[in-house]
């Protein structure tokens, strides 16, 4: 099948219809946040802990080190979407650091890309503009 300019009116009509349904842009604005909120489960004690981590900082949860690189949240009035690119390392018994997760976590689907470890689980809860914990480097 070859492309024909006779198809152009149909293509333009479909594009206009899509614009009317989805608005001027189908992609919602994403807001970068300086803090990611995580939940962590200790399977031995059956306790859940909530902890905040600033971007590019590392927090240790049990034998895991959690480092968020970016955290995005959808804008107001948009469908809630919260995601973060996270790296998780495990400190092994012989004190070596081993990367066990590097990827996107989604707060609306915590089971999709949560870190599942034999003792600890970690998942993203939210992206926040501020935290009760002072930022690194402040006293």
UniProtKB/TrEMBL annotation:
<protein>
    <submittedName>
        <fullName>DUF2155 domain-containing protein</fullName>
    </submittedName>
</protein>
<dbReference type="Pfam" id="PF09923">
    <property type="entry name" value="DUF2155"/>
</dbReference>
<dbReference type="InterPro" id="IPR019225">
    <property type="entry name" value="DUF2155"/>
</dbReference>
<keyword id="KW-0732">Signal</keyword>
<feature type="signal peptide">
    <location>
        <begin position="1"/>
        <end position="28"/>
    </location>
</feature>
